[in-house]
Amino acid sequence: MTTHATYLAVFLGSKTSPRSKAWQALSEDARRTALRTPATR
Fold first, then answer.
1. Do residues 39 and 22 lie in contact, with contact meaning Cβ atoms separated by under 8 Å?
2. Which domain holds residue 13?
């Protein structure tokens, strides 16, 4: 049996913001890694 995790990322702000553009530029693997690590601001 395979277990799959599903994540939902929600951005509050503009799709044209630098952070949103950076997220969209990430590959699926990089997004999964980013979601597993604590956020840094």
1. no
2. 1-41
Give the separation between CA 33 and CA 6, rounded to whole angstroms: 13
What secondary structure letter does DSSP report for 13? Answer: S
Tell me what percent of the residues of the chain surpass a pLDDT of 90: 22
The domain tally of the chain equals: 1
User: Cα separation of 20 and 1, whole Å?
Assistant: 35
- The pTM of this model reads 0.55
| Predicted pLDDT of residue 33 | 87
DSSP assignment letter at 38? P
